[in-house]
């Protein structure tokens, strides 16, 4: 340490090197290993399990060590290895006797240990053990725990590359127990097998089968145990093949495994201290230093993080001494989130270089703090910048630490900063707490707040005001320092980035834009992006005056302007706007009030939305000025401005969604209510799209009905229409009423009602239908079957009335044949008012058309039919004849069918010119052979 000759490999445990006797003494020798090892809570639990298992006193048979890269998995395996293979008494292993006592054991038997290291051998190339060639992991396992004799048990399986199976492995483990199998880097081994191909080491499937058989077999052997390490992340697993192998192994081990607890941050204090420092000999000095820090923090009060005011923070200072706990917090909470930064090894190497540099510089800090890091030293700096994107060296040299840094220049000009190194300490602390966020996108806010920055700098005897002033000065001066808001606010967060800082220019420009015009217009653009494409509505109207919202049959979403905001405590601005819009259509009253749904802003989020809109406008003006040559900046700044603009534009729709999250629906419970009300429904601002969320809320709360049951239609008709002696209701009039009255259901479209009617006509439970009523007779009456055409003439008849009418007008049976070879007709032609298609009698038309009407000895050669059709039911009748007569005739491929339509109309007072012109034009376009007026 003091000579600075350490290497990272010195902190790297290699279980294969230990098992083959090639490791350094601190890893190879069990006594030396435990002297330098801090037994963490997780390791203690695991070693207790191992001791109990080897003694035949229970314990987990299979333990999976799965944690982040550099999390201490291999070191923990070495602890198990030395406990099982020790050549000394247990009492010589530091920390072990206490664990054995706690486990209720007198001793831990020595055991055979097999180390299966996935990186030690190639699955396609056999290796030698003495004179024996070994091809597979199971062959290696057998050889390590029992030599040639044990290998003979699995020799055949080793030769063929097939798994020996659970029974054979159980026999092997029982014969050589107590034993421990340590498996490391298993994913690295298994991922090398080619797809669907066997090599000397077996196949992908046979190795997975071996692992499964081993985990099952070891459960059946009381004094045998398996420990296996698996990587925690897909990145560590490597290629797609490695990830597939990891998933398969996780599933296999998941059947029987017990998970291991990784190293906690508090435990890291002791690990680093044991590896990098000699034991503390002057306990009084440690206590005095830590007490001085704790007292200083209490004196500063709310200027520092809340946990510094608790007694346990003093305990943290003692445990971490001589390193400040904030250093560990930042390394373990922030830096370990970077892929490749090792939780234990990476921290050890960094701190080793930091300690060496501080020792050489004769640093007088009472603790090694974030503000103490010698970032001017290239060796220490490289340990951190190695894991960061390119460009951080320039940031450090210009803004953070070094002879040419702005912080150094500020301290030279102002002695009160220079006396305590305030500017550099502030910048170092911000760097340590914010640089990882340039690599890892975290859910938490980026950077450090003022309290944590001061915590990383302040020492006993100093005041926080010096550092607070230095931070404010740096926020105005540094090129790469960013702030989330007003630099004077305690909640403002600060961070360094490799991009040059244009934020101050942007913040100045934000105040230039007018709230009523420019900001409102930009918010409207954001709302349009968020909700403009909602397909559930026939129209979306953003900040539109009620005069410009059409009063028609379309279902419309009206987005209220920002001033018509809503909160649960104050509903008046939004509710007044809703009531005003459903009542008025400009200077005229609005008739179809039940076609509008409203979206309102949340008052609490409105300021954030306005700020997001101002940010977009500000960055947009900077980018425009650069393009027009009005603002001269370098290419890096230009790219930054364009990126910030895009980022701000991406933020605006999200801010819109978080703000416009209240769906307002005008409602009225009953026709007798004196005035309408408004209901508010909150939208989920995460997950699905805005359109899908609005549709969900509308559907779940029946604000808009997309599918309607005929039973609900019948209920409304009974409630409001079939009463007071009325038993018939116009379908089109009912639909028009649903457009107007808030107490009726808000149907998505006319088709919803049409579907409900079509579903209802199939049964006699809901209503009958007709297409007109004259002299007590229904035209086109149908009840309990048939098709229906929803037009302006359609009537819906109360079921009891329809049933009574059906009984009163049931026709007498007609003879099937007149004896003349022609079907029987009723009256002149076939003037049919009842029944209609599908009512149970229409089938007779099809049967009559399909059956021979003359004796079989003389087949009919032709068919002729004529009917008088009432104009009111012409559409339905023509469809009926086409479906039930023409289509049956056409089913005979030998039939030649000719249809002739004759239309005659008389006008006692003469036809108007409008009717003549329209009919003549339609006749020409439809190709009528004759179309004469007389």
Quick description:
By secondary structure, the chain is α/β, with parallel strands linked by helices. Helix content is 46%, strand content 9%. It is extended, with a radius of gyration of 43 Å.
Distance between the termini: 119 Å
Instruction: Summarize the amount of helix as a percent range.
Output: 40-55%
Overall strand count: 22
Our Rg estimate from Cα atoms comes to 43 Å
The oligomeric state is single chain
Strand percent estimate: 5-15%
Q: How many helix segments? A: 37
Main sheet attributes: strand count, strand direction, barrel closure:
5 strands, parallel
Helix-and-strand structural type: alpha/beta
**Average pLDDT reading:** 84
Q: In terms of topology, how is this protein built?
A:
Elements (H helix, E strand, L loop, with lengths): L14 H5 L5 H4 L1 H6 L5 H14 L7 E6 L5 H13 L10 H7 L9 E6 L9 E3 L2 E3 L2 H24 L5 H10 L3 E6 L1 H5 L13 H16 L4 E8 L2 H4 L2 H14 L4 E2 L5 H12 L6 H18 L10 H10 L4 H9 L11 H16 L17 H8 L6 H9 L5 H8 L1 H4 L3 H13 L13 E2 H6 L8 H14 L3 E3 L9 E4 L6 H8 L4 H17 L7 E4 L13 E4 L12 H12 E2 L2 E2 L6 E5 L2 H25 L7 H25 L2 E6 L9 E6 L7 H11 L9 H11 L7 E3 H10 L9 H11 L7 E3 L2 E2 L2 E2 L16 E3 L1 H10 L34 H8 L23 H17 L22 H14 L8
Parallel strand pairs: 1-6, 1-7, 2-5, 5-6, 11-12, 12-15
Antiparallel strand pairs: 3-4, 8-10, 9-10, 13-14, 15-16, 16-17, 18-22, 19-22, 20-21
Structure, described:
- With 934 residues, the protein is an alpha/beta fold.
- 46% of the residues lie in helices and 9% in strands.
- The protein is built from 37 helices and 22 strands.
- The chain has a five-stranded parallel β-sheet, sandwiched between helices. A five-stranded mixed β-sheet has the order 11-12-15-16-17, sandwiched between helices.
- Helix 13 (265-276) crosses helix 16 (325-333), helix 20 (406-413) packs antiparallel against helix 22 and helix 22 (422-434) packs across helix 24.
- The longest helix is centred in the middle third of the chain and has 25 residues, at 603-627.
- 38% of the residues are buried.
- Mean pLDDT is 84; it is low at 818-857.
């Amino acid at each position: 340490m003091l000579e600075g000759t350490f290497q990272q490999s010195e902190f790297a445990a290699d279980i294969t090197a230990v098992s083959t006797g090639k490791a350094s003494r601190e890893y190879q020798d069990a006594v030396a290993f435990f002297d330098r090892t801090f037994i963490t809570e997780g390791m203690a639990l695991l070693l207790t399990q191992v001791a109990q298992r080897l003694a035949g006193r229970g314990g987990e048979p299979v333990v999976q060590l799965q944690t982040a890269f550099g999390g201490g998995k291999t070191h923990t395996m070495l602890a198990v290895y030395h406990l099982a293979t020790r050549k000394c008494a247990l009492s010589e292993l530091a920390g072990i006797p206490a664990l054995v006592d706690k486990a209720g054991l007198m001793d831990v038997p020595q055991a055979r240990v097999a180390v299966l290291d996935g990186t030690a051998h190639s699955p396609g190339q056999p290796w030698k053990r003495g004179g024996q060639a070994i091809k597979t992991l199971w062959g290696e396992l057998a050889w390590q725990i029992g030599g040639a004799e044990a290998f003979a048990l699995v020799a055949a399986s080793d030769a063929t590359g097939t798994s020996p199976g659970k029974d054979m492995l159980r026999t092997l483990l029982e014969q050589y127990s107590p034993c421990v199998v340590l498996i490391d880097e298993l994913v690295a081994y298994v991922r090398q097998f080619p797809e669907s191909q066997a090599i000397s080491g077996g196949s992908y499937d046979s190795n997975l089968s071996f692992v499964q058989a081993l985990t099952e077999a070891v459960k059946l052997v009381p004094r045998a145990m398996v420990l296996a390490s698996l990587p925690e992340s897909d990145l560590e697993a490597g290629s797609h093949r490695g990830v597939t192998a990891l998933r398969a192994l996780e599933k296999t081990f998941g059947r029987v495994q017990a998970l291991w607890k990784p190293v906690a941050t508090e435990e890291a204090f002791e690990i680093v201290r044991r590896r990098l420092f000699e034991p503390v000999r002057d306990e009084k000095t440690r206590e005095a230093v830590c007490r001085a820090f704790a007292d200083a923090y209490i004196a500063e009060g709310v200027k520092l993080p809340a946990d510094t005011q608790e007694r346990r923070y003093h305990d943290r200072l003692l445990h971490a001494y001589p390193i400040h706990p904030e250093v560990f917090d930042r390394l373990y909470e922030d830096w370990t989130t970077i892929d490749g930064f090792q939780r234990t090894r990476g921290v050890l190497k960094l701190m080793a270089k930091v300690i060496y540099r501080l020792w050489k510089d004769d640093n007088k800090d009472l603790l090694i703090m974030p503000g103490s890091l010698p970032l001017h030293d290239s060796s220490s700096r490289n340990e951190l910048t190695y894991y960061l994107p390119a460009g951080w060296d320039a940031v450090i040299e210009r803004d953070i630490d070094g002879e040419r840094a702005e912080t150094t220049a500020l301290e030279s000009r102002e002695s009160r900063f220079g006396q305590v190194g305030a500017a550099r300490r502030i910048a170092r602390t911000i760097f340590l707490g914010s640089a990882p966020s340039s690599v890892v996108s975290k859910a938490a806010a980026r950077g450090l707040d003022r309290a944590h920055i001061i915590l990383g700098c302040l020492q006993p005897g100093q005041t926080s005001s010096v550092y607070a002033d230095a931070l404010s000065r740096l926020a105005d001066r540094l090129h790469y320092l960013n702030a989330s808001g007003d630099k004077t606010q305690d909640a403002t967060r600060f961070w360094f980035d490799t991009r040059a800082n244009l934020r101050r220019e942007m913040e100045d420009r934000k105040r230039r834009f007018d709230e009523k015009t420019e900001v409102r217009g930009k918010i409207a653009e954001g709302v349009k992006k968020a909700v403009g494409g909602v397909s559930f509505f026939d129209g979306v109207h953003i900040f539109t005056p009620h005069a410009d919202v059409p009063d028609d049959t379309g279902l419309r979403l009206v987005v209220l302007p920002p001033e018509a905001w809503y909160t649960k405590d104050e509903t008046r601005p939004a509710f007044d706007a809703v009531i005003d819009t459903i009542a008025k259509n400009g200077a005229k009253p609005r008739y179809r009030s039940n076609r509008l749904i409203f979206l309102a802003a949340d008052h609490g989020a409105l300021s954030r939305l306005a700020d997001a809109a101002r940010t977009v406008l500000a960055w947009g003006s900077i980018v425009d000025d650069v393009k027009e040559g009005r603002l001269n900046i370098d290419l890096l700044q230009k790219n930054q401005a364009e990126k910030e603009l895009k980022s701000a534009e991406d933020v605006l729709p999200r801010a819109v969604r978080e703000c416009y999250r209240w769906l307002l629906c005008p409602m009225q419970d009953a026709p007798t209510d004196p005035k309408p009300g408004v209901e508010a429904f909150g939208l989920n601002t995460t997950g699905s799209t805005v359109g899908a969320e609005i549709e969900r809320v509308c559907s779940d709360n029946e604000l808009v009905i997309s599918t309607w049951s005929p039973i609900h239609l019948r209920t409304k008709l009974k409630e409001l229409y079939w009463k007071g002696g009325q038993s018939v209701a116009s379908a089109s009039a009912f639909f028009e009423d649903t457009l107007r009255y808030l107490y009726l259901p808000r149907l998505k479209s006319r088709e919803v009602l049409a579907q409900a009617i079509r579903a209802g006509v199939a049964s006699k439970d809901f209503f009958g239908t007709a297409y007109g009523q004259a002299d007590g007779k229904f035209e086109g009456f149908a009840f309990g079957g048939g098709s229906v055409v929803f037009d302006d003439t359609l009537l819906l008849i109360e079921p009891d009335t329809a049933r009574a009418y059906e009984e009163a007008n049931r026709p007498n049976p007609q003879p099937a044949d007149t004896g003349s070879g022609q079907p029987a007709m009723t009256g002149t032609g076939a003037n049919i008012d009842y029944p209609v298609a599908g009512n149970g009698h229409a089938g007779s038309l099809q049967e009559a058309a399909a059956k021979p009407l003359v004796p079989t000895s003389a087949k009919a050669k032709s068919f002729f039919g004529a009917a008088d059709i009432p104009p009111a039911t012409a559409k339905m009748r023509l469809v009926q004849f086409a479906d039930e007569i023409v289509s049956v005739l056409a089913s005979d491929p030998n039939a030649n069918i000719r249809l002739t339509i004759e239309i005659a109309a008389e006008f006692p007072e003469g036809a108007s010119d409008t009717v003549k012109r329209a009919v003549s034009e339609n006749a020409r376009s439809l190709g009528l052979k004759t179309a004469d007026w007389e």
